[in-house]
Amino acid sequence: EDQVTQSPEALRLQEGESSSLNCSYTVSGLRGLFWYRQDPGKGPEFLFTLYSAGEEKEKERLKATLTKKESFLHITAPKPEDSATYLCAVRASGGYQKVTFGTGTKLQVIP
Amino acid sequence: DTEVTQTPKHLVMGMTNKKSLKCEQHMGHRAMYWYKQKAKKPPELMFVYSYEKLSINESVPSRFSPECPNSSLLNLHLHALQPEDSALYLCASSQVGGRTDTQYFGPGTRLTVL
Lengths: 111, 114
Description:
The structure holds two protein chains of two kinds. By secondary structure, chain A is mostly beta strands. Chain A has strands at 3-7, 10-14, 19-26, 30-38, 45-50, 56-59, 62-66, 70-75, 84-92, 99-101, 105-110. In chain B, the strands form two sheets. In chain B, strands 2, 4, 5, 6, 9, 10 and 11 form a seven-stranded mixed β-sheet that branches. In chain B, strands 1-3-8-7 form a four-stranded antiparallel β-sheet, with no helix packed on it.
């Protein structure tokens, strides 16, 4: 059974204080790993898709990396508007469009 | 354009009511999804349509009835719901197969069952 574990559950940062969120996964053949941002009461907003170990993608203050066992979402010099819940999800080969979500990391950035 | 739209934004219904949620995408995606999300939990898959045919039903109670009239539209018909069905209902769409099967989500419908 595919499993995704995100840590920490919650993270509080001062504005400008860089940090990383972790997503550990167990899957029978990774087809894709996805990062989403979700604001309260809204749908998840797509951030990145990673397909193979060693791959990295960046967008503004966010950078996602992937190894064979985990992914990191690095946040550089965060701003209060980066406050949200960050969700990680994986799709297995042969998973037929089903993805497995982690429980998310709730990030709060304090001015 | 990576937009998925959902209507209504909010819905309050009694346990005897019949209502429908609607979802639309114009990205040419051929897979569409319904998810249910409770507070502080990740989205939970309900149904998947692939090429307008139901391909996955995650043992959802029959009071939820999905419909995919065409490749751009997805409906979720609701009947005789229970208060525990109150949640954020999310629609998503994606390509089918290949390396571009990222799911894009709509803003959700906040459902309250009285």
